[in-house]
Write a structure and sequence with these properties.
Blueprint: E1 4-6, H1 15-24, E2 31-36, H2 45-56, E3 61-66, H3 89-94, E4 97-103, H4 111-118, E5 127-135, H5 140-152, E6 155-157, E7 162-165, E8 171-172, E9 175-176, H6 182-206
Parallel strand pairs: 2-3, 2-4, 4-5, 5-6, 5-7
Antiparallel strand pairs: 1-7, 8-9
Bound molecules: flavin mononucleotide.
Length: 211
């Protein structure tokens, strides 16, 4: 598909199976938090995060955290397992799942996102995440680095992840106009995210993991 890398394969669970399993769980509406990960003045993450949030609002209550608008405490106060409670800790804690909208910087994800991850600990735990990455070739190296970091925090990442190739070509006055198939591919990742987020919500409530 032009402009996009989609990792979906024929071996994935069908969307119908994933969504009906989530629907059958009796629990409050799913809460997803979209995180815009880059903080440059001329960044693209905000407009792409808004597009992702619009898409996710079809299946969940959505919050959008723009890291460019969040001030974290100084790193000199950071200790293993986080540190003093940050201004966004409650919002990270409230979420059942996350959509990380991140560019690839030097074959990984931006330092600002790593700081936001490191400044929180229990807030992330036993949740789910998907990644909407972007870059010259889709930014998938950022996604793969995030998988390893999130595993340390007991965050499950979805198998499906969408990478946008050179999305700057698809952004104009009306925001992001995705290439054909992009929205559908992202919806597939969101369905997986919803399944994991619902399942883990129930597990956290009914049988919390004894660390
Ligand atoms: C510091 C820096 C490093 C970058 N490294 C990569 C890279 O490794 N791979 C890539 O595809 N694009 C790379 N780019 C290009 C970005 O994909 C592109 O500038 C994108 O718009 C950055 O996202 P942002 O606008 O939200 O900051 C890099 C950009 C910056 C600013």
């Amino acid at each position: 598909m032009a402009g996009m890398t989609d990792l979906t394969s024929q071996y994935s669970p069908s969307p119908e199976t994933a969504s009906s399993a989530a629907d059958q769980l009796e629990q409050p509406p799913l809460r997803l938090t979209v995180i815009a990960a880059s903080v440059r003045k001329e960044r693209l993450s905000r407009v792409l995060a808004e597009w992702a949030a619009g898409r996710a609002s079809g299946i969940a209550d959505v919050d959008l955290i723009d890291l460019a608008e969040c001030e974290l405490p100084d790193d000199e106060h950071l200790v293993p397992g986080g540190g003093p409670r940050s201004a966004i800790a409650d919002r990270i804690e409230r979420a059942d799942g996350y959509v990380i909208v991140t560019p690839e910087y030097n074959h990984s994800y931006p330092a600002g996102l790593k700081r936001a991850i490191d400044w929180h600990y229990g807030e992330w735990m036993f949740k789910a995440a998907t990644v909407l990455s972007y870059g010259v070739h889709g930014g998938l190296l950022a996604t793969e680095h995030l998988r390893g970091v999130f595993a340390e925090l007991h965050v499950v990442t979805t198998r499906r992840a969408v990478g946008l190739r050179a999305p700057w070509n698809d952004i104009g006055d009306d925001g992001f106009t995705p290439p054909p198939g992009t929205g559908e591919a992202f919806d597939g990742a969101l369905r997986e995210l919803a399944w994991w987020a619902s399942t883990l919500h129930t597990a956290r409530r009914d049988r919390p993991f004894q660390r």
